[in-house]
Amino acid sequence: MNATPRTKLLACLEFAAFFALFFAYVLLRIDLPAIYDQSPYFPPFLTGTHFFVRFVTYPGGLTEYAAAFLAQSYFVPWLGALVVTGVAALLTLSTRRLVAGIAGVPARLVSFVPPFLMLLGYDRYAQHLGTYLAVLLAVFCATAYMAAGTRLPWVRLVWFLVLSVPLYLAVGGGFLLFAGLCGLVEVIVQGRRLLGLFCFLCAEIVPYVGGRFVYDLEPADAFSRLLPYHHLTDPTAAPVLAGFVAFFPVVALAAGVQQARHRRRLSQANDSPGASGEVGAASPPYSARRRLAACVRGVFYATVGVAVCFSYNTPVAQVNRLNELALRGRWDEVLLGAKRVPIHRYTYALFHNVNLALYKTGRLAEDLFVYPEDVDTLLVGIEPRRSLTQIVRIDNALQLAPVDLELGLANEADHYAYEALGRYGERPSVLRLLVRTSLARGEPDVARRFLRVLQHDLVWHEWAGRRLHRLQTDPELRGDSDLRRLRTRRLPRRAGQMWRPLNEKCRALLEHNPRNRMAFEYLMAFLLLTRNVDGVVANLDRLDDFQMQTLPRLYEEAVLIYEGAGKKADLHGRRISTATEKRFAEFVQVYNRFRTMGYLRGAAKALAETHSDSYFFYYYLGSRGEHQ
Amino acid sequence: MRAGSRLLLFSFAVGVAVLGFHCRTGVPVATVLDEAVPLSRPPRIHPDYAGIVIPPNIAPLNFVVKEPGKQYVIRVTGTGGGTVEVVSRHPDLRFPLRPWRALLAANRGKQLHATIAVREPDGTWRKFKPVVNTVAREPIDRYLTYRFITSAHNIWYRIEIRQRDLTTFTTWPVLRNRSFDKGCVNCHTFLNNGTRAMTLGIRSRTYGSCALLIEGRRVTRIGTRFGYTAWHPSGRVVAYSLNKVHQYFHNGGEEVRDVVDLESAIAYYDVARRLVKTNPQFSDHDRLETYPTWSPDGRYLYFCSAPILWTDRRTVPPKHYEETRYSLKRISYDVDHDRWGTAETVLSAEKTGKSLLLPRIAPDGRFLLFCMCDYGCFPIYQPSSDLYLLDLKTNEYRRLTRVNSRRSESWHSWSANSRWFVFSSKRRDGIYTRPYFCHVDEKGRVSKPFLLPTSDPVYFDSLLMCLNVPELSQERVRVSSRALTAAIRSPRGITVQVPIKFTPRRPGAPSLTPAGHPWRSGGSTRK
Questions:
Q1: Is the pTM of this model over 0.80?
Q2: Does B155 contact A422 at a Cβ distance shorter than 8 Å?
Q3: ipTM
Q4: Alpha carbons A190 and B271: distance in angstroms, whole number
Q5: Alpha carbons A266 and A280: distance in angstroms, whole number
Q6: Which residues contact B386 (CB under 8 A, 6 or more apart)?
Q7: Alpha-carbon torsion, ordered B400, B403, B404, B408, to 10 deg
Q8: Fewer beta carbons within 10 angstroms: which end of chain B, N or C?
Q9: B103 φ, ψ (degrees, to nearest 5)
Q10: Do A421 and B151 touch (CB under 8 A)?
Q11: pLDDT attached to residue A200
């Protein structure tokens, strides 16, 4: 069974090639910075003992700490890809040792299954690094257990117990895998059923004792922390993760069965008279076996390649990418990309970012209906459904807070920023948001606190240091024009409580600062979306505050609908463009034709090509999203 | 093997050299301080531990010298004798525990002079005007119990009740909410500054809401929620408030959060008979009654009371809520016969023009410490909340000017000897509460407050957790966290009938807060 140097070289080359491709795939295909910024399960990491100490108070904490540290590498794509590849390579090596320890033969191909499953997870933008590390440690310890090199059961028992305690502290629920693998080794390889049973029982006893008597934990936290379906484990791609964890006992069992069959054949060969003990006498010739192995390899790699490519979640990646662009303020690219996203793939965050991009590019009053729209997506909230525009979506706190801040709803932004802190912990994006909201609210002391925390972040510490230095020289950052602008928009104490419909909030903002253009545009967008043309017309006089000489297209269309009801709108000296009037006439003609037939669906179909971006279409036939 | 040994020896030598280099002071403190160029101002230190009165049993007051320099020297000398010296390359100065204790012991009732010298980049030593502090004669209660929680709006995961030994830096958890599915734990209340008897309030979606009655090592689950709680000094009765409490948020102004009691009343639990009772004088349907506290002799129950200014008891915030101001009332009580007298107003909101909250009477019965803010029932969310002291002999009250800041000062607790109190303050940033201590002498003179000392003097600077509801006690909590958790999870316990009913929520109305709780754990809201 000894491998020749050529075989070894080939194996090394195969290993290197596989992981070179793995690295390239992660680097080029997976947007690791999007996971860093957007995954709700991305862990924060801070340097210093105060942060570390909290991880030693529960089993699995140390692995979570290590995972949090390594995950920070996602900020730099090549470094993140290197870390992921490193973990995958170590998993492969551990799997090889495990299988070799049980079956006595190397299982090169099978050992590539864990990295393959990891890729399936990353294809779905899942953040499972903690589980991968826990499994890696558990498998490594299982191989260390097998390497005890003794057949004395009591020595192995002691060795098992010695490994168990620190491992449980380190990997939490991952311990179950270790105990299970050790149990399988005892039953299958060593033939010690009693010891195997003890190992299986320890999978229950150790977490029970640790969780109940040492750490005082809930059973779920004692047994399944870092395992799939635990409430703190990213549920994205949970079945893949479950398959990943289940792979190891399954492969151990399969290796054990193979080993047993091998032994049986050996003993049969020895027992049969006339046999010379050559087990492989009846097996196919060497060249045929090589051809078969090559075929199997080919099929395996082809399957892996196809599966990985097909499992790649393009819509999620697309949406993540757009949200990432929004975070970086690349609004034109957001709008361009959003057109390519199918309506049913729109998330609340994307709706939200598209609207913001429209506002930022000055197109909210022109192109609102070019994109799928829904009144609930104008401003996405997380609080009770008291107003039209607030949806219970905690994961949108991070998107909502900056928009609120821009609008002038500094307290609301602050509220969402704290909710995000409660939800995500000390992630840099949350802390930076808190710094900005605090400064906008004129609270430099609070901003300083968050900056001091950020100074412990691996990526943002320099930024925080610079900001702190600026605060030293200019305590309230009066020289910052952006903050000055936000402060002038901020509502006073008498503004009332937070949970009011968006139109009321915008009116309050405009009352406080009539030149708050964003409040005006969002108010008008709200009125358009709620089909309140009277409201749109009533607020047209505010255009004077922004020196707007002409009417934006959607306002013109709203005016035409208003006047269509026999009322006269005061346009304050402005006129409806002939193009809009002509478009309205065309719309009415088609619409009336179908209406007399009682077939409005037909009108929607007929007008979809030419008028779906118009307010007429939305007003009479529903939004593009509703229509679809 | 030989090479290995050499390598080991070499590593050891390098380690010793590095350690020696770092430990090396090489600075004759006396010479430095004698020869340093004197400055006419005291140094800037952080936290501000200058001009304060400190307990003779407090842990070292470590601090950071906010003066630029390459090396720092401090010598603390007591007028009663004793010296502690620290030399450091870093501006954070940490005192060794034993010499510190000896210094304080030798200087009870006397002063400590801390002389700080800083070596500037050019090698010159400059000496600041000494920082002078006073060591009080009276010790402070040894333990501080507080709630460790994030600055929560609606979502949080982590909440703990912790206890700290004030003579050292040792802290330990009494109860963590991770042990009962991320529920809420609050309002830890001790009997007479001891842990012989105490109560804890628990809210949990999984295990239900309850109060834990802890008597020594025995924990009993009482199947009702205790709000603000106060033990009768005899330990036979526990008065507590029932609050129909709601949180809401302001769109403008300094503090975002606010809390309103739509309805509230006071009840009391008879420990021996396991009964909950009330009295119409503190459970008036048309008034809000809250924050009960007993006089040290147990003859009076003090509480806060305000008229309900709204008719709709379901809308949040109710109309005229910002005009709600609480008065201080008291009612006599005979614990032997369970008999109540007639309620009387001690200090009315009409007189103060503010909302009077959280009355706590010193164990010697002389002073009553309380909060006053512009309106409402929740001082921690009111930047206007300040501490006031009422002399129960003269019935005169005054604002504690030296104690208060422009931000919220709230929850306070007296030491058993009535010479110290601890309170929560947001003075540092308006968001995160920290415990501060003050000395009160026999005449009611209150010293400048000082922050809870920590081993790392900048620990609080970047801590994103609040330390609120500080309570002083002379004893360590005896019951284990496991026993508390077992009681919370247990279906057994004392079932009580609460004789107070609030207006039920409008059927089908949207819940302003999940399950009627003002705060919810993030653990249950994760999607």
A1: yes
A2: yes
A3: 0.88
A4: 61
A5: 10
A6: B371, B372, B373, B399, B400, B403, B404, B409
A7: -120
A8: N
A9: -65, -45
A10: yes
A11: 95
A388 has pLDDT over 50: no
Handedness of CA B312, B313, B318, B320 (dihedral sign): positive
pLDDT in tens, A14-46: 999 999 999 999 999 999 998 998 888 899 999
Show residues of chain A in contact with B149, CB under 8 Å: none
Strand order across the B257-270 sheet: B229-231, B237-249, B257-270, B275-278
pLDDT at B240 over 90: yes
Q: What percent of chain A has pLDDT over 90?
A: 53
CB–CB of A587/A614 below 8 Å?
yes
CA distance B454 to A452: 17
Q: Which helix (H) or strand (E) holds B413?
A: strand B409-414
pLDDT of the residue at A311: 84
CA distance A114 to A91: 7
- Given B179, B254, B317, which is nearest A216 (Cβ)? B179
Peptide bond just before B383 cis, omega within 30 deg: no
Q: Is the distance from CB of B389 to CB of B417 less than 8 angstroms?
A: no
The nearest CA of chain A is from the CA of B447 a distance in Å of: 25
Per-chain mean pLDDT for chain B = 89
Segment B310-364, tens digit of pLDDT: 988 878 888 889 999 999 999 999 999 999 999 999 999 999 999 999 999 999 9
DSSP letter string over A195-264?
HHHHHHHHHHHHHHHIIIIIS---HHHHHHTTSTT-TTS--TTHHHHHHHHHHHHHHHHHHHHHHHHHHH
CA A523, A526, A527, A528 dihedral sign is positive
**What's the average model confidence in pLDDT over A305-325?**
86
Q: Of the candidates B248, B456, B462, which has its C-beta nearest A452's C-beta?
A: B462
A with B: how many residue pairs have Cβ under 8 Å apart?
Answer: 126
- Write the CA distances from B126 to B40, B121, B352, integer angstroms: 10, 11, 50
Tokens describing residue B266: 């006071």
Portion 451-490 of B in contact with A at CB < 8 A:
456, 459, 461-464, 481-482, 485
- Contact (CB, 8 A) for A293 and A105: no
Rounded (5°) CA angle B135-B140-B145: 140
Highest mean pLDDT among A236-240, A312-316, B292-296: B292-296
**Whole-number pLDDT of residue B313:** 80
Residues of B in contact with A496 (CB under 8 A): 250-252
Asked if pLDDT for residue A169 goes beyond 90, the answer is: yes
**Which of A225, A497, A509, A513 should one mutate to test binding to chain B, selecting the residue with the greatest count of B CBs within 10 A?**
A497
What confidence tens digit (pLDDT) does each residue in A427-485 have? 999 999 999 999 999 999 999 999 999 999 999 999 999 999 999 999 888 888 889 98
Say if strands B520-521 and B155-156 run parallel, antiparallel, or are unpaired.
parallel
Between CA B235 and CA B233 the distance in angstroms is 5
